[in-house]
Amino acid sequence: MALHELVYGLYERRLAARLDRSRVPHHVGIILDGNRRWARAVGEHPSEGHRRGGEKVSEVLGWCEESGVGVVTLWLLSTDNLSRPREELEPLLRIIEDVVQDLARAGRWRVHPVGALDILPPETAATLKQAGDATVGASGMVVNVAVGYGGRREIADAVRSLLQEHASRGTSIEELAEVLDVEHIADHLYTKGQPDPDLVIRTSGEQRLSGFLLWQSAHSEFWFCDAHWPDFRKVDFLRALRDYAARERRFGS
Question: Is 23 inside any structural domain?
Answer without folding.
Answer: no
